Amino acid sequence: MPNLLSRGLFNLFFGSRRKPFAALPGPQPGVLGTAGDFLGPQPWDVCARYGREYGGVTLIWMGPSPGVVLNDPALIAEVLESPRRMEFEKGNISEQVRPTVTDDTVFIAKLSEDWAEKRKLEPTGQPWSPEWLAAQVSPMQAAIAESVEALLAEPSLDYTHALRRLTFDAFSVAAVGEKLPSSVFDDFLLLARGADARIQAKLPLRFVSLPKGFAEAKTGFYGHFADRVRAARKSPKPHAVDLLSWSLREMPGMDDQVLAHLLGGLFYGGVFSSSTTLVGAVHQLQKYPDAEARLAAEAATLADGALTSEKLSGAHWIEAVAYESLRLLPAVRVFTRTPSSDAQLAGVMLPAGSMIMISNQHLHRDPAHWTDPETFHPARWLNGGVARDPLGSGHFFPFGRGPRACVGGDFAMVFLKTALATMGARVKAHVDSTEPFEEGFFFGVVLPKGVTGKLITRQPQAAHAAPAALTA
Ligand code: HEM
Predict the structure, then answer these.
(1) Phi-psi domain of 98 (left: phi exceeds 0; alpha: psi -120 through 50; beta: other)
(2) Closest Cα to atom 19 of ligand 1
(3) Closest residue to atom 40 of ligand 1, CA basis
C-alpha cells in the first residue's frame, strides 16, 4: 500500500475524482494511483488477489485515471457477450502487436469499424472449418511423432522452447501441409520479440525500438506464405487437406495477400498459447502420476494405426487433461477492454479510455465454484463436467467469452488432444523439478520458466497397463 504522504498527495490533487467511484471497493491510491501494485507481481496474480480481497469488481487508478478489474461472471458477460460489448474496444494490446501482425487479422480490428467483416474471413471460423479440422488429426499426429523422436535424442530439454517448436511444426502442417524451414520459425520469433518489447515496455511506444532485422523478418515471414499461396493457386492440389488448399477451394475469391496474412496470423494467434498449455500439462502430469498413468493407458489404446478425429472424440481422459490444464494454468490470463465513450458499468460512469481488466485466474480457481480448485484433477471434467462448465462460461473461459472469443479455440483443442495422445503413447515427459513453478510473460501469453527435463521412451507394457482405470 502507498505510504501516507503518497496517499495524501493523490487525494490533494485528484481527491475530487474519487467521489463518483466511492461505492466501489479497491486498494488505496497513491501518487501512481494503484498502478504500483502491478510493478513486480504478474498482472494475473494481482487481478486474482483483487478478486479474493474485493470481490467481483475492484476500482483501480492508473495514475489519475480510474479503471476496474472484473472478477464477476455477470459483469464480464456484460462487457464481452451482451449487446453492450460493442461499447468496449480491445485494450492497448492492438497497438502493441500492430507492427508484428498485419491489418488483415481480426485480432487488432476495431469492433466499431471492421471487426465483423474481418472475423468472417478467418479460415478457422468458416462453415467448412470443422471438416478441415477433422482432417488435421492424422497429419498433425505424424508431425508431432516426428518431433518427439527428434526430442528423444536430446539429453535435456527446456519444455517451453522444445514444445514451442513442436507446436509451430504441427501448425505448419495444418496450415500449409508440411513443416516450414527453420528460417521461417526464426523470422516468426524475431517478429514476436518486437511485439513483446512493446507489450512489456514501461515507456510510451514511440520510444520502444524494434529488434534489428525486424523489417526483413516481416518481409520474409509473410512473403513465405505469399509465395506458397501463389504456387498453390498456380498448381492446385485437389485432395490436399491443409488450410491453404482448403481455403483456395472454398474461398476462391480471397485476395492472395490477405490469405497469406491470415495463414501467418494463425501462428501468432496460437503457437505461444497452445505450447504454453502443453508445458502446463507436462508439469502437472509430473506432479500427479496417477493422471499421467491414465493418460498413457488411454493414449496406448489409440496408438494402433493413424490417429483420427473419431478416435480422439472417445478419448475422454485426454480431453479432461487438456481442459484441466486450461483451467488451472490458462495461457491467456488477462484481457483488457476500454470504453469507446463514457460508459456506465458496475454502477459507475467509466470515462472513455478507462482500463477494464478481465482475468480468468480467480474464477478458474474460485473455491465457491470448484472443489479443491488448486489441485490438478482431470476427473472433474468426466461424467458431465464438460457440460457443467462449458468453454466460455462464467467460471471457465480460457479462450475468452462471447463473439470476440478465440477464433482458434477448436483448432487449439484438437491440437492439444492430438499432442497429448501422440506424446502419451510414445514417451513419458519427465520434469526435473516441479517446484518452484515460475511463470513469466511473452507476447501477451504466460511463459512457464525453467520447466526442464527429458523425454523417456514409454515401455510398451506400461502403456498398456491398467486399461480398467479408463472406465472409472
Ligand atoms: C490454448 C490456445 C489458445 C488460447 C488459450 C487462446 C486464448 C485466446 C483468448 C483468451 C482470446 C480472447 C482475447 C480477448 O477477448 O481479448 C483469443 C482471441 C483470439 N485468438 Fe486465441 N487462443 C489460443 C489459440 C489460438 C489459435 C490456435 C489461434 C489461431 C487460429 C488463435 C487466434 C485468435 C484470434 C485471431 C483471436 C482474436 C479474435 C477476435 O478478436 O475476434 N488462438 N484467444
Answers:
(1) alpha
(2) 406
(3) 107
C-alpha cell at 287: 506432479
Q: Which residues of the chain, if any, have pLDDT below 50?
A: 461-472
Instruction: Please give the backbone phi and psi of residue 454, each rounded to the nearest 5 degrees, phi first.
Output: -160, 145
User: Which amino acid would we find at residue 132?
Assistant: W
Size (the chain), residues: 472
Q: Rounded distance, CA 385 to CA 366, Å?
A: 16
Q: Identify the sign of the CA torsion 140, 143, 145, 147.
A: negative
DSSP symbols for 386-454:
HHHS-TTBTTB-TT-SSTTS-TTHHHHHHHHHHHHHHHHHHEEEEES---S-EEEEETTEEEEES-EEE
327 lines ligand 1 (CB under 6 A): no
d(CA 66, CA 185): 41
C-alpha cell at 426: 510414445
Sheet with strand 427-431: strands edge to edge: 157-158, 452-457, 427-431
* Ligand 1 proximity of 336 Cβ (cutoff 6 Å): no
- Taken in order of first residue, the domains within the chain and their CATH numbers are 72-471 (1.10.630.10)
Residue 47 in marked binding region: no
Phi-psi region of 400 (alpha: psi -120 to 50; beta: other; left: phi over 0): left
Q: Please give the C-alpha separations between residue 104 and each of 53, 88, 94, 264, in angstroms, as whole numbers.
A: 41, 21, 13, 11
Q: Under DSSP, is residue 65 helix (H, G, I), strand (E, B) or coil?
A: strand
pLDDT at site 13: 86
Q: What is the pLDDT of residue 463?
A: 43
- Spatial CA neighbour of 188 closest among 160, 159, 220, 211: 220
Per-residue pLDDT, 95: 86
C-alpha span between 204 and 208 (Å, rounded): 7
Q: Which amino acid is at 181?
A: P
Report CA 163 to chain centroid distance, whole Å.
14
Distance from the alpha carbon of residue 262 to the mean position of ligand 1, in angstroms: 13
C-alpha cell at 270: 496460437
Work out whether strand 452-457 and strand 157-158 pair parallel, antiparallel, or are unpaired. Answer: antiparallel
Is there an atom of ligand 1 within 6 Å of 407 CB? yes
Residue 472: per-residue pLDDT? 33
The predicted model scores a pTM of 0.95
Q: What's the pLDDT at 460?
A: 65
pLDDT of amino acid 466:
42
Tell the residue number behind the cell numbers 500427479, with chain if given.
288
**Residue 275 CB–ligand 1 contact under 6 Å:** no
Q: What angle do CA 199, 204, 206 make, to 5 degrees?
A: 95
User: Separation of 190 CA from ligand 1 center, angstroms?
Assistant: 20
Per-residue 3-state assignment (H helix, E strand, C coil) for 153-181: CCCCEEHHHHHHHHHHHHHHHHHHCCCCC
Are 440 and 449 in contact, with CB atoms under 8 Å apart?
A: yes
